[in-house]
Sequence to fold (348 residues):
Amino acid sequence: MNRAGTESESEFHFELRTCRWAEREWPLDSSDAAILVARQLGTKRRRWDTIVLECDPDALRHRAKFGEKRLDGDLLHVVRNAPEEWTYYRDCLPDPGYPWRYVRESIHEADDRGVLETRRNGNRIEIRRKWPYREWVRRIVAIENKPDLDASAARALRPQLEYDVAMALADEVWVATRKTGERIEPALLERLPVEAGILTLDPDSLESEVAWYPRRLDVDGPGTRILERPAGGPRDASPAQFEYVDPEVKARKRLEIAERAYERGWRSFADTMRPDCRHFELRSAGQFLPWCAAKGCCQTAAECSSRCSHVEPEPPAWRTRGWPIEGGPGKRSKTLLEERRRRRRPGL
Fold:
């Protein structure tokens, strides 16, 4: 079947459908985990298309007490170690490894956000926690989306998956690709790491099948960060360069990724597009998807920008007269997406 020219050919569209599939179908086992789905998140060296957080339901609801905004690394250092009773902050917080003045800034920020209590005792700043920060993330699952996983795409993807497996920052690594209906899916014939799972997905019907189950990665052990690879070839005997990553660093980075996912979610594509363009629409296919009426397609963030030749801002009257309810269609689209995103965070 020739699918060229359909909206399903867009990798961005496939990514959004994968996120929707994850919200509907994950976890694949019968566990009671609550899930959060995010997209385009990771570290400075590695960014994943889709992230699924398997969370403890009670702890996830408790996390809502700290607000919808993320707690960055500095704030986590404060709220996770804040004592039950009033204590001078330098006596109760572990040495951060950087100047204490930055810790004081984080303490004041936490106080301003209402997630920490502070008081002065002479020249000393004493702190007391409002609530314990519970470990609300059980597992992190990373998914790479490649709707058309041909040989060239597999060659480009393989180093990224090998990095993920060696680093073991996520509990599982998957590749989501379009279901072809063949007896043996083409993805199974590609030279991908055996530790990575393969999911075949029909982006229109969201019917899926696990073609290859992943291995559980050792997130509690040291990680191996691959820095440089041999150039390759039969005469290349040069070794790869790598470094080990301490388990505590990995644990801290995993929690920071989870906090960013909690804040952003995956329905934030309107933040990188032009919903104020009169051609921007949201079309429902079991979920809201961006649609460009001028081009007649599910546009990407790169296409939906100020450089687009079809961009045409909404008439001022739409925004100033509260059309149709409050603000123009662009503002209403962002409101709808934000409401959907909030529903995925219990307790808010």
In short: The chain has a mean pLDDT of 89.
